[in-house]
TrEMBL record:
Its cofactor is pyridoxal 5'-phosphate. The gene is lysA. Residues 39-270 form the Orn/DAP/Arg decarboxylase 2 N-terminal domain. Homodimer. Coiled coil: none annotated. Pathway: Amino-acid biosynthesis; L-lysine biosynthesis via DAP pathway; L-lysine from DL-2,6-diaminopimelate: step 1/1. The active site is at C332 (proton donor). This is Diaminopimelate decarboxylase.
Length: 382
């Protein structure tokens, strides 16, 4: 079980995010070690967590950045990430964001549609520069994860559909300010069964032959991210099996000479190191249920309300007895519920509660709904 400095927590204003820096560093060490075996290039998906301390540690380990907005590009460049390691994805890039990427000479735009290609070409031409792009192709592979985080099937808004690819390739030769450097994929998030990644490799092998037949060599192949974490057993599995994950691509994708392979990992790097720490305001005896009402709500962690996602919830008290509770927040919405009928240590007002595995899509998605303050962050090493 992860050790929490409970006495320290009692003196801090809740709710707040607590990050296990040792676990983050260990996770990054494994990522870097396993990727280095095959000379894979890793770009951290900033959308998972943009906490400055977290970004600083990730940059120190030599990772690049996967950004989905101009704000994220500005953030990572201000944190010292190299522009030549920044990729810019997203289905709706605005003109100012594209211009920012061009001005900063980022490594690559992951392009998702013909209209986007036309706009990037126009803006690059106006700056008398060349935009490096990778085509984000929708491989029509179901990742069998939550439908809100599935991104690689035909009716998703993301990517260029397979039946549009010939038209895109025909058009590329007419765009003087575009340089095609590779192709990009991202089939979904929180993927635990590696089978969809094997299918992706097979699909990309076939697509590569299509490009070869057209006389196009793809310098860069970007497989995106999607590797999940064990939300149910964070102590038993604090670090995902990056070895198995990378081995899928090593085994099933046929790399050409002088070809570089890229990944965009987010949740799998930061998910387990973050915890939302909250305090019990009230224990309410309802007619049919017993409620633990926390001072944290979906303003601090929206995933359970948004995806009905599961998080381990721990009462950090020394109580031995247990009881069954619905764990809810203070927000004036019925969806402000972290868990239903959850077994916890017998809980009282003032108890400290840890909601585990909240390092990804937790703090970064916090809001000020109900005019609430954004949560602060604290770290295990300070």
């Amino acid at each position: 079980m992860q050790a929490f400095p409970i006495e320290k927590f009692r003196n801090l204003q809740t709710p707040f995010y607590f990050y296990d820096i040792e676990l983050l560093r260990k996770t990054l060490q494994v990522v870097v070690l396993e990727a280095a075996k095959y000379d894979y290039h890793i770009h951290y998906a900033v959308k998972a967590n943009k906490n400055p301390r977290i970004l600083s540690i990730i940059r120190e380990m030599g990772l690049g950045a996967d950004c989905v907005s101009g704000g994220e590009i500005e953030t990572v460049l201000n944190e010292g990430f190299s522009a030549e390691k920044v990729v810019f994805a997203g289905v709706g890039k605005t003109d100012w964001e594209i211009n920012l990427g061009l001005e900063k000479d980022i490594f690559c735009f992951n392009v998702e549609s013909i209209p986007e290609l036309v706009v990037i070409n126009h803006l690059a031409c106006a700056k008398n520069t060349i935009a490096r792009v990778a085509l984000r192709i929708n491989p029509e592979i179901d990742s069998h994860t939550h439908h809100y985080i599935t991104t690689g099937i035909k009716d998703n808004k993301f990517g260029i559909n397979l039946d549009q690819l010939d038209r895109v390739l025909d058009m590329l030769s007419t765009l003087s300010s575009i340089q095609l450097v590779g192709i990009h994929f991202h089939i979904g998030s929180q993927i635990m069964d590696l089978t969809p990644f094997r299918l992706l490799c097979s699909q990309v092998n076939e697509l590569q032959q299509k490009f070869i037949q057209r006389g196009i060599f793809l310098k860069h192949i970007n497989f995106g991210g999607g590797l999940g974490i064990d939300y149910e057993n964070p102590d038993e599995n604090p670090i995902p099996s990056f070895r198995e994950y990378f081995n899928v691509f090593r085994t099933h994708f046929f790399v050409l000479n002088n070809q570089q392979i890229h990944f965009e990992l987010g949740r799998s790097i930061v998910g387990q190191c973050g915890n939302l720490i909250s305090k019990v305001l009230y224990v309410k005896e309802g007619s049919v249920k017993r409620f633990v009402i926390l001072d944290a709500g979906f303003t601090e962690l929206i995933r359970p309300a948004f995806y009905e996602s599961y998080h381990v919830i721990e009462n950090l008290s020394l109580e031995e007895a247990t009881d069954v509770y619905d764990v809810v927040g203070p927000i004036c919405e019925s969806s402000d519920c972290f868990a239903k009928q959850r077994v916890l240590k017998k809980t009282y007002r003032g108890d400290i509660i840890a909601i585990r595995s909240a390092g990804a899509y937790g703090e970064v998605m916090a809001s000020q709904y109900n005019c609430r303050q954004l949560p602060k962050s604290h770290f295990s090493d300070c």
